[in-house]
Specification:
mainly alpha, 2 domains
């Protein structure tokens, strides 16, 4: 084989490798954007670049895959659903207390499902993997609960918080395995 033929072959293989790598990266970007939806855009904004955001989102997926997240047993699901109904009813007369308890109840269900709950930011990152459609509402509800503790949330804010919490709460109670979890 001549030197010029070998050089052309090596260059062709390098170009092919770059094309394959680029297509794989583009496909992964599309998968992340599709899966995470608005959370993808928020993470890009937060990190200032799609590359760093995608690394963060991929890290989240890897982390959550290692967690022992599982559906709740039917009796536990029923018990939590009843407690939620009581808090919704309580909202009429005691909206501040109901929102505080809703925040706590969501955290309790997350813990029962196997999510670590020590740090709010980590909890949000973890839950964004399996529940990306409601994670932004969870952030908003938690922010309202914090404002309520400082005495600066209106009744309308508290009503929104309950709606936001309910969205995540209902998803957490669903009898399904998280994304990528092995069937048991």
């Amino acid at each position: 084989m001549q030197t010029s033929t070998a050089i052309v072959l090596v260059l062709a293989l390098a170009v092919l490798g770059i094309v394959v790598w680029s297509l794989a990266r583009r496909r992964r970007s599309t998968e992340l954007r599709t899966h995470f939806g608005p959370e993808y855009d928020r993470t890009v904004q937060q990190h200032g670049s799609a590359h760093r955001a995608e690394r963060d989102l991929s890290d989240r997926e890897r982390r959550v895959k290692r967690l022992a997240i599982h559906p709740l047993p039917p009796t536990e699901r029923s018990r939590y659903a009843e407690r939620w109904k009581l808090e919704q009813a309580r909202f009429v007369d005691q909206p501040q207390a109901a929102v505080g308890e809703a925040d706590h109840l969501v955290e309790e269900v997350m813990k029962a499902r196997g999510y670590p709950v020590d740090d709010f930011d980590q909890r949000v990152a973890d839950v964004s993997v399996d529940h990306p459609s409601v994670v932004q509402n969870y952030r908003a509800a938690h922010e309202i609960a914090l404002r309520q503790q400082r005495g600066s949330a209106s009744t309308e804010d508290l009503r929104k918080a309950m709606i936001y919490y309910r969205g995540l709460f209902e998803e957490l109670l669903e009898d399904r395995l998280p994304q990528g979890a092995p069937a048991r």
